Amino acid sequence: MSFTKIVATIGPVSNNARLVQKLLGAGMSVARLNASHSDLEWHAATIDMIRRVAPETCFLFDIPGKKIRTMHLNNEPTFDVGDELILTTNLDHDGHEKVPVSFSDFHSCLSVGDVIMADDGTLCFQVTKIEGQDIYCRANTAGTLRSRKGINVPMVDLGMELVTAADHRMIQFARTYAIDYIGLSFVESRRHIEAFRTICGADGPSIVAKIENKVGLLNQEEIIDAADAIMIDRGDLSVETRFDTVAIEQKRILKCAQSYATPVIVATEMLHSMITSPFPTKAEVADITNAILDGASAIMLSGETAVGAYPVGAVDVMRSIASSSETYEQEIAIHPRVSRTENKNIPAAMSGAVNAVMSNLDVSKIVVITKSGFAARVVASARPNCPIIAMTNNPKMARRFNLYRGTKGIYADIPFEKVSSNHIMAFVHHAWKIGELSELDVILAVAVAYPNSGNRMNLIQTHLVQDLVEALQWSRKT
């Protein structure tokens, strides 16, 4: 198997059962839905369709949050350098005379001379006049402003709410449809994440925090600690900060996330050329390779699979590049196993013990038995060179584990014993019965025994599966 996970965006091109099956066969690990495009009815139908095709699919639902976009336009204006364009917060317009934007107070936050960027920084305007709800702009670049494209105003505080009414609707939708992860745009603090986590509830989706502006970079450590996963959205990040430092900031985020065992998705234009071409550029191949070698848990496709001409080909190419990168990573041991023993707690000690065993024994698979997924995150962050089977009795959590590097989530209806460790062998037996383990496997089992709030991983065992089959008289029929 390839260890790096592929997040593929489902859009008009890929929104059918045949294409979804092909994307899964090519290596898609997580299906991403972008709430900034289409309505909730479209997303609901898409979720239902994918669950019919592949019930265990992990979903990431990206919600707009503080991201500003153009609205749906019946006319998408084309302009040359120096032309005038009018943006407006009056949603009665459709692009013929004025282009409406999604933030109702946008006009009151701007001043003459402010620079407005659009469509991941490919379009640039300067504010020349503000009249009521209308923002008059001079185009500094030629192009076309299309529907649902992002709008950025670098270095200007727009004073937007942490959680909007639209966010509440989106989260309720995510809860109703048992979405695994929600993606939050422009996360700037731990408080931002906690506000959304309160709304999501204990049984709601996990949170992928998108670091994509200057404040997010400054507070990246607390964001990484608070989030369930991180996304590096390089499109907005390059516009909101500096385009020439994006690669450096990506490396810094990946390094910080490694120390917190937080998985990271690297996103934006990874195979952008494959929207229209069957082949990637050499720069794109190098970009994906470096993201993986620097520690990315997952890599993401956006327009390539949502509206591109070669959606399955893009996943195939990404999987091939990932496999080659991982082979090189193993050859030179670029990632020595991470030691967290400087932290005096049970998880840190167990992580160090796992690393020591892996360095001295030819383990073929790691079986992680976990309730919350914390143990699976810690083991995956050490980037072992063998598959991780993360087992739980919570089907929602089992799907979410599929975002972690090299990890396959497995659900089993087995209770966690509070006064014994019998559940550990019960989970390993289940993995063997369903064919995830063979008699020839040498396994490292990482588990929680006598679970309580303080012990999230406190036991490791090594076994030759054949010995367990014989000693415990396992049968695939029971």
List the helices and strands and how they pair.
Elements: E1 5-9, H1 17-26, E2 28-34, H2 40-53, E3 58-63, E4 68-69, E5 78-79, E6 84-88, E7 99-100, E8 115-118, E9 123-131, E10 134-139, E11 143-144, E12 150-152, H3 165-176, E13 181-184, H4 190-200, E14 206-211, H5 214-218, H6 220-226, E15 229-233, H7 234-240, H8 246-259, E16 264-267, H9 282-293, E17 298-301, H10 303-306, H11 311-332, H12 346-360, E18 365-369, H13 374-381, E19 388-392, H14 395-400, E20 407-411, H15 422-433, E21 442-447, E22 459-464, H16 465-471
Parallel strand pairs: 1-2, 1-17, 2-3, 3-13, 6-7, 13-14, 14-15, 15-16, 16-17, 18-19, 18-21, 19-20
Antiparallel strand pairs: 4-12, 5-11, 6-10, 8-9, 8-12, 9-10, 21-22
Helix pairs in contact: 1-11, 9-11
